[in-house]
Amino acid sequence: MDTDTLQGTLYNLAESGTLSNPAYNTLLHDYARYHAVLFIEGGIFTLILVALSVYFWRRFISTQEIEFRKWSFEKKTYFSFGLAGAVITLFMFLIVTANLSNAINPQDGFIKSIPDLNTPQTGTQKALLYQAVNIWAKSGSDQMPLILQNEVNNRLSWQQPKAVICSIFLVIFAIFTMRLWQHLIKISKINHSVWVRKEKALFVLGMISAPITLLLMLMSLANTQASFAPIMLTLLFG
């Protein structure tokens, strides 16, 4: 493969199996760290989802029906959240286990990611970045190019605050959503099936806040992951 391109240089270094090139090792370790962070944080979220799913299913089983073959609002709520929790937990489990293999043995995954470093248009900032990184990788220096360091710092300047903000909003929305649905269940026990406009509005709000909480979880996960391993993401997306 043409070693005049960053793709070619990295591919040749990867195929040679070298571990003596500091530049290549920096990129490889960044790739491994990217997947390790997702495994750790994703694993924590998965455990929380497992605990919530177990709680919802236990509440579903213990909740009494209003009449024979008729579920109460409380029972329907716990069933819906239990089912959604189980599906999301399975999805997260697949993501976490897939990233574990790349964290432990990053070489194969790194090689597969090299084709994503498409040759940029000549004269662009990305072309200058790739040229500098290509020279760096060929030289085997442990000194990261200034242009790459600046691009990484630029990414971290907004990626890290975004990770913090998303995490804070995740906690806020998770607490808000939990209390809102607890309030709706409490109202359903008092008013049964008779809901006025206020209760209906709260129900709609609850239906909106639940997927927003899930979205914030994914955003928090992705931005935290990128904050700990920004080099490859900078090369891929600038």
Describe the structure in your own words.
The protein is an all-alpha fold and 238 residues long. It has helices at residues 6-16, 22-62, 73-104, 106-113, 125-139, 146-191, 197-228, 231-237. The longest helix has 46 residues, at 146-191. The radius of gyration is 24 Å and the shape is elongated. It starts with 5 loop residues before the first helix and ends with a helix.
Fold blueprint:
Layout: H1 6-16, H2 22-62, H3 73-104, H4 106-113, H5 125-139, H6 146-191, H7 197-228, H8 231-237
Helix pairs in contact: 1-5, 2-3, 2-7, 3-4, 6-7
The share of residues in helices is over 70%
- Report low-confidence residues grouped into runs of 5 or more: none
Order of helices and strands: HHHHHHHH
Structural class: mainly alpha
Mean pLDDT: 89
Number of helices: 8
Instruction: Determine the strand fraction and express it as a percent band.
Output: under 5%
What is the number of beta strands? 0
Calculate Rg over CA atoms.
Answer: 24 Å
Largest sheet: none
State the end-to-end CA separation: 24 Å
